[in-house]
Amino acid sequence: MSNTWKGVFPAVTTKFKEDFSLDYAGTQKGIEAQLKAGVHGIITTGTLGEASTLSYAEKQEVLRIAVETVNGKVPVLMGVAQNTTLEACHAVEEGQVNGADGFMILPAMLYAADRRETITHFREVAGASGKPLMIYNNPVSYKVDCTVDMLEELADEDMFVAIKESSDDVRRITDIVNRLGDRYDLFTGVDNLAMESLLMGATGWVAGLVCAFPEETVAIYNLIQSGRISEARDIYRWFKPLLDLDVNVKLVQNIKLAEVAVGLGTETTRPPRLPLVGSERENVLRVIRTALDNRPDVSDYV
User: Facing residues of 80 across strands?
Assistant: First the structure.
């Protein structure tokens, strides 16, 4: 399958009303801000999109909102993280009907599958999909590591076009490139390893803090692609304390609080997640306020 994904793909948050129902207008507003900043794709219903709290029908509805909002400007990928292989196959089948340009797929949730089971899961989903797939590797959070050996084994399946590499080991980027060259579009999925990964061969960034700071995220990517490393590094160093908020069990609450600070959302999360309180909230707000007080002008780079 001929496909090229590269650039900044925000893993967008899902917006909720006070009664925890889906907030169509709020979700749309967040996506529109990303498009205005020049992102290269949109990913719905990932971890940051609170997929674990969404019903099957709601995940499809969030996808439809994104597809309608994007209106063909960039690819829209739907995150697929289901408990069973059969559910994942159904999700990609219906997602195609609802306009997805592709899917970001994880191993089955809850059960920590072994190598054979993980490869079988991915192949079954590929067989159900008529759209390209990004394999999301996050052994830190999901306890299953899709190794370089496994990626090599899966390379014969044309539906697999990209990898979101979130092993938290930037050396994995080089290992994948050395073994597989440009077989896959290679994305970094760890915000505070993004520049390091892009310099070592990643061609894209599935980003989190981009939800609140889209211009800065796009600027870093554009500058690196232009070889303007020193300028990109300066922005990245400013960004780093914010990016650290993504590498945290409460990344959703952290990033939604950042969205509030820039007028792009609310703190509402679905239980069991609750908005931050007390010193934890103040510490995150301190990082956000410091960043806003020293925010660089990136208007020339986006």
Answer: 105
What pLDDT, on a 0 to 100 scale, did the predictor assign at position 111?
87
- Between helix 278-293 and helix 251-261 the angle, nearest 10°, is 50
Q: Angle at which helices 56-70 and 85-97 pack, to 10 degrees?
A: 30
Sheet holding 76-80, edge to edge: 7-10, 204-207, 185-188, 160-165, 133-137, 102-105, 76-80, 42-44
pLDDT in the model for residue 1: 47
Look up residue 219 and give its two tokens: 């600027």
Torsion of CA 121, 123, 128, 131, to 10 degrees: 120
CATH number at residue 43: 3.20.20.70
Show the DSSP H helices in the chain as ranges.
24-37, 56-70, 85-97, 115-128, 139-142, 148-154, 171-180, 194-199, 214-225, 229-243, 251-261, 278-293
Sign of CA dihedral 267, 215, 62, 68: positive
- With respect to residue 199, please indicate whether it lies within any of the assigned structural domains: yes
Residue 54 lies in a domain: yes
Mean pLDDT split into 10-residue runs, the chain, 302 residues: 83 98 98 98 97 97 98 98 96 98 95 94 97 96 94 98 96 98 97 98 98 98 98 98 97 98 98 97 98 96 86
Strand partners, 102: 77
If one counts every other C-beta atom within 10 angstroms of the C-beta of residue 200, the result is 17
Question: Does residue 67 fall inside a structural domain?
Answer: yes
pTM above 0.90, yes or no: yes
| Number of separate domains in the chain | 1
Is residue 1 in a domain? no
How high is the pLDDT of residue 302? Answer: 83
Type of residue found at 183: R
Q: What range does the domain containing 192 cover? A: 7-301
CB 107 within 8 A of CB 81: no
